[in-house]
Amino acid sequence: MPRFDLFSIGHSNIAEQQFLALLRDAGVSFIADVRSAPHSRFCPWFSQKQLSVSLAASGIGYAAMGDALGGRPRDEGLYRDGVADYEAMAARPEYAAGLGRLLDAVTRSRLCILCAEREPLDCHRCLLVARSLAERGLTLGHILHDGSIEPHAETEQRLLALTGYGDDRDLFASGQRERLAAAYRRRSHAVAFRRKATTHTAAEPQ
């Protein structure tokens, strides 16, 4: 297995024991939960309290980090056209502080970032957090539910193909970076959290 500095995983509706087995197989010793709301109504074993207990029983540490690294910001200024703006979020000092906590944890444990979506390209853990870590030189692997681990570099190639930016005729690194940035922007706008429109009655202030 290639060497990874850290991992990511999306729990989706996977069974608890299968989830724990995936973590054990990857050698994970610590979970950083980047869900803005670390609860699951349909799969209660992934709600924060129950999850932390089951992880501890398996010798895996846990920390909730959705306050700094979650994909559903509370600040209305971090939305563009009602969609969470990952690039604006990445520029916030709170986000940088959260990344610092992750980087510190990576030096002390075999860390895995946890969110809800099964597919990395549907989730901010990939499109926001993993992107930031890769830009800082870390090698990240996405743990998939079939037990395979997809290097983030390969995930980015899927991202380019999915968004229509996979044309590799531009041999200049600057052009490749621009295509990848555009691919991230397009996919993020497609899948990021959307605020519900606020409705007002005639008697309410606008």
Verbal overview:
The chain is of the alpha/beta class and 206 residues long. The chain has eight helices and eight strands; from the N terminus they run βαβαβαββααβαββαα. Strands 3-2-6-1-7-8 form a six-stranded mixed sheet, with helices on both faces. A two-stranded antiparallel sheet has the order 4-5. α2 (48-57) links the parallel β2 (30-33) and β3 (61-64). The longest helix has 19 residues, at 173-191. The termini are far apart.
What is the fold's blueprint, element by element?
Blueprint: E1 6-10, H1 16-26, E2 30-33, H2 48-57, E3 61-64, H3 66-69, E4 79-80, E5 83-84, H4 86-90, H5 93-106, E6 111-115, H6 124-135, E7 140-143, E8 149-151, H7 152-163, H8 173-191
Parallel strand pairs: 1-6, 1-7, 2-3, 2-6
Antiparallel strand pairs: 4-5, 7-8
Features:
206 residues, alpha/beta, Protein-Tyrosine Phosphatase, Chain A, six-stranded mixed beta sheet, two-stranded antiparallel ribbon, 14% strand, globular
Describe, in short, the structure shown.
The protein has helices at 16-26, 48-57, 66-69, 86-90, 93-106, 124-135, 152-163, 173-191, and strands at residues 6-10, 30-33, 61-64, 79-80, 83-84, 111-115, 140-143, 149-151.
Percentage of residues in DSSP E strands: 5-15%
The low-confidence parts are 199-206
**Main sheet attributes: strand count, strand direction, barrel closure:** 6 strands, mixed
Number of beta-strand segments: 8
Query: What is the C-level CATH assignment?
Result: Alpha Beta
Distance between the termini: 57 Å
- Which second-level CATH architecture applies? Alpha-Beta Complex
